[in-house]
Input
Amino acid sequence: MKLHEYQSKQLFAQRGIPILKGKVATTAQEARDIAVELGGRVVVKSQVLVGGRGKAGGVKLAKSAQEAEEAAQQILGMNIKGLPVRKVLVDEAAEIKHEIYLGITNDRAAKKPVIIASGAGGVDIEELAVSDPSKIIREHVDPLLGFREYQARHVAAAIELPREHWKTFVQIATALVETYWATDATLAEINPLVITKDNRLIALDGKIVLDDNALYRHADLAEMRDLDEESSQETEARRFGLSYVKLDGEIGCMVNGAGLAMGTMDIVKYFGGSPANFLDIGGGAQADKVTAALRIILSDTKVNAILINIFGGITRCDEVARGILIALKEINTKVPMVVRLVGTNEEEGRRLLADANMITATSLADAAQKAVKASKG
Amino acid sequence: MSILVNKDTRLLVQGITGREGQFHTQQMVAYGTKVVAGVTPGKGGEWAAGVPVFDTAKSAVESTGANCAIIYVPARFAPDAMLESADAGIPLIVCITEGVPVLDMMKVRNYLDQKGVRLIGPNCPGLLTPGEAKVGIIPGHIAKPGNVGIVARSGTLTYEVLNALSQRGMGQSTCVGIGGDPINGTNFIDALELFEADPQTEKIVLIGEIGGTDEEKAAEYISDHLSKPVVAFIAGQTAPPGKRMGHAGAIVEGGSGLASDKIKALEAARVKVAKHPEEIPDLLV
Output
């Protein structure tokens, strides 16, 4: 789960990382009022959960409250990479002397958190990693020992930070790592961390991505989820414990298991079709989950065929069949459905669906080809 | 021969009295696996699925000589269960549980490494040596003994492949489900190394998916160290970047983890990569 910049910076500030004064506005008038309160000169920043906001014109400097209102007017209602801007953060403007990148994330290969830093901040760190990897400093954190101050000094020295800032930098880096641990983040980054013209270190922008698997122990953070930023289908799917990702195609897919769901999408594409979604009903799904899944798939109006692929292990094919039948009673649809049920209780499942006017298939390739054919009418 | 588990495996089940634990213990016992003990704190002295239950892993190991543990407890208790089995001296731990927080896994993995304990999973279907032992949730009836070793990141996709192989008369030595989480125990290379050394295994199937760089590393290892033929399938060729495809580890981030990169690396290591799962048996012939 991604947090907005303003949410991330609040979490940083709670642990002592210096940030600028600022507030969130949802209207241009509010942005104006905040600018007045902050003394006029501000930066108006779109709050959407994608990168590249600056390049898209979603961050503007305003020299007066009037300009702040105009900037907010322009930014609110903008679409950045498909996401409508509903909020802006109005921050004090800072005079920047130097920009630094500082982040911490999980290193999958090392099985440890890794601090990533660069003296060339304010850039896309992923691009820099490709174009000039020597400018990126990495320092692993031992998960059992934790982060040590000398490690922060290693980083400070490696990015050639002037010595006068080391003490503050150590505090900021330590607080960043603490925030990462305390929130169960998979990424916590300050980009840029700036040295201002009056020689202060300030986190100008922040980003935190939380581990969805750990949200059960962070009720306060789970509440920060911005439902505006996901499709209604995704919200609905989460409510039923389904894993759903919307794509651009026409063939709705319902599968048990993430790997098989991806494999099913791939084979649809291989036979010339185009998957409309990723949907994993999980292991041992009961009828109600299956019903919800089918409802979600059919709410996408582009869907013109559905492929249901179930390899029953823990999941029982008869339960899935019952869910399909309930859904069909609820939703009146003419979208053709291809069903493949294999594994636990497959005979019973097939028997239940025998009268439901569905296209059946035995192998995965057969099912995919039939779905593609149905989709192309 | 086979790898990791066989008819001599003495299995301990953590969470044996839970719904999942009880059901799968029955299945494992019915398959012929030697399940010697169960652990559920507070239920020591009881029996579940015909297996004696202990309060702690330590007492279970002392009484039964268990040498492998399987974990079916909910995610919030799973890190503790893995550490408890490791401290009880069990050298091989299989964790089925899905949804363990990644920061917990980093601590667990680092501690287990220090102890020299091998972990399979978490968020995995476990291990199956056809005809000998089932340690996990892989449906036993779709597998049959033979010479193909399988290592996979996913569950049901693996069943699909097992089924396709068995239907074509191609049996398996051992099937290893390493799981779909970003931080796990045994990886592709560990399993490939074991299969290479196992005389029963003559061919290997590797089933990967998007996210991370384990498949690329496996390709390098195959190229340098493997004499046995490997066939692969990579799931997620149609997955968009930045979206987690169900598994916590199945996500294309920062331009890495793409299926196309993995396929390229594997093909460069002379691995035949299947276009779809049911093509795997054709490529193994």
Q: What stands out?
A: The longest strand of chain B covers residues 145-152. Residues 138-284 of chain B form a domain with the Rossmann fold fold (CATH 3.40.50.261).
